[in-house]
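Much of our argument rests on the idea that a fold can be written as discrete symbols. This step matters because it turns folding into a mapping between discrete strings. The record that follows shows the chain in one-letter code together with its fold in token form.
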Amino acid sequence: MNKFVKTMLLSLVIIILIGVVAAVVVLNVLDKRDKDEEQSIDEIVEYSYQTPEITTDLSDGSFVRIQFQIITDGKDAKEEIAKRDFQVRNILIKELATMDEEAFKSGLSEVEDILKLELNKVMTEGSIQEVYTINKILQ
């Protein structure tokens, strides 16, 4: 009887371990699928942050007034990016200060990409999915 109980306990432990491993694998696969799916337009609107207008000078003395819509991956990330507004401004001022009027006209996508990359470096509660320029005035 003692040998029978040991065999039963060993079998039970093995079955439980297999179940736990299977659950972890299934949850990770499902979680990756959820992350790979694109956001709906409602989620994009809900998780987006609109920066205030920023006015700064370019290297050739001209001025630009610009505004962005920053798309995050969730509510926590949206709240965090709102708190990091000063970092958004800092990145933009540094980047735009090296550009002249012609480079700015042709390099706006680069500014968006740099803003996305630099902000993702400092984000702790989620990430930036996309940056869109929604307002631009060059003087």
About this structure: The longest strand covers residues 128-138.
